[in-house]
Amino acid sequence: MRFELNILGCGSAKPTTRHLPSCQVLNVRDNLMMIDCGEGAQMAMSRQRLKFSRLRHIFISHLHGDHWFGLPGLLSTMGLHEQTGTVTVHIFKDGAQLLQQMVGFMGQLPYHLEINVIGTQPACIHEDNAVTVSTFTLNHRVPAVGFIIREKPKMRHINPEATREANVPHWAMNSLRQGLDYVTPEGIVIPNAQLTTDADPSVSYAYCSDTRPSPRVTAALEGVDWLYHEATYGEECKRQAHARYHSTAHEAAQTAHDAHVKQLIIGHFSSRYLDETPLLHEAQTIFPNTRLANEGMLVALAH
Amino acid sequence: MRFELNILGCGSAKPTTRHLPSCQVLNVRDNLMMIDCGEGAQMAMSRQRLKFSRLRHIFISHLHGDHWFGLPGLLSTMGLHEQTGTVTVHIFKDGAQLLQQMVGFMGQLPYHLEINVIGTQPACIHEDNAVTVSTFTLNHRVPAVGFIIREKPKMRHINPEATREANVPHWAMNSLRQGLDYVTPEGIVIPNAQLTTDADPSVSYAYCSDTRPSPRVTAALEGVDWLYHEATYGEECKRQAHARYHSTAHEAAQTAHDAHVKQLIIGHFSSRYLDETPLLHEAQTIFPNTRLANEGMLVALAH
Fold this sequence. Notes:
The structure is a homodimer of 303-residue chains. Chain A has 303 residues and is of the alpha/beta class. Chain A folds into two domains: 3-154 and 200-300, Ribonuclease Z/Hydroxyacylglutathione hydrolase-like (Metallo-beta-lactamase, Chain A), CATH 3.60.15; 157-197, no CATH class.
């Protein structure tokens, strides 16, 4: 079942001709969720052939411009595309207020724009059939949260041969998928494990930008499968990184290691790097399973 | 003396992979003036190697998002570039108020941001050594103005041979350039025309987007040298153009013709066109001296 990450922008605040500011889109069973919405997000959506009509939730981590100045343009354009239904923006209070005023310049939107005011305290801010989205507190210059998107437990797989042999009727299949045993008309209990195979594992993805490393962040990330973590600088700029409440590639990798995540993607690169390979190597000395984010990148989080 | 037009974006409201929303930059003697600031303007500045530090004035024609949603990002980034001096944004009152609130999210800007509230009534809104910038009223769904940038009269050219022959001293050259006659120590008047040649003509450029055609607009444009005029649609979409208070290519050309302008550039193309050549041909049947705008285009307005 589809659970994919599209990187739309992985630069930091100063845009360059190589990177766009922060934006990514998760495709969860063909429903799209955007995390951060830097300027140019709507153009990147078109370039990466992501359908506006499938975008239902937008999560904004904090109110630095490079994380949300693409929002007014995106919401306007979704109006021009005659989108219907509800689009929910999850954002801090100050941003919500400003956004409401900007909507006044967008004419009559054909869809319902819902604004969900979020806080810095960890909370589950969204839940649907497929995933939960929860926040955790980052350590940045301004209030900021990360997001963890966790797939819900999935259904077990029917073993076609075994169910045929046991004459399991069609109506009983769904309860088998949910893990229940099958009771024959004669009252014989056939254990679920004989008729099904294990469900696919539920995958979790965490977005962690912008932040200094902190034990609280590491604790929040414990055991997630995939981690996108900012690595604005390399260790040679450690002082600068800390002064600006950012992380180095080394620190991102240390966090990934300490939190026992499985895979790390680093991004939010400073404009000073014309090639991020040194950041990759720096991270890989601590956490080998690291890759560099890049615009246009598509990662299958679950198979 | 340099007077150049850079097209950064010439699409209409719905962005495409072919065009950015409205934005252009005039280079006037190496000082940059931006007209409209659609989303992506700052990235286009970088791509077209226009220096942020030279940008001193930004003129916003109206408050539809595709004409100013790039402003917050641009102003933030100029802060990150440690720009100093004053940057003036000329904008309607509602936009000014929103902009002031957005500036609150940009941290301490190292430059002075001045906001000049403009109205819809024609006015001279800026003047410096080289040009005047004045507004004229457009005919759009929301209050909107066009801009005319006129070079001030230029200095006459010294005729080196004639001034050498007449022994004109160095200190008298500037008054010759300004058109004064030269009086020799003996009291003989040498007419300016014998010592100088004509100044280069002063060139004018008008920006006219978004608008329906109207006699008032045509009158305002009378005799300008260069006209950028929106041509969102072709004549086949005339009804749609008028319903949305836009112009067709035919109408843009008719306005250029009736206002006796010298050169026409059409832009603000609807996303429906994958090739604007038909719009060009449509305009050229009325006004042959027409060209199509395009991102990255550089036009020398004066030589």
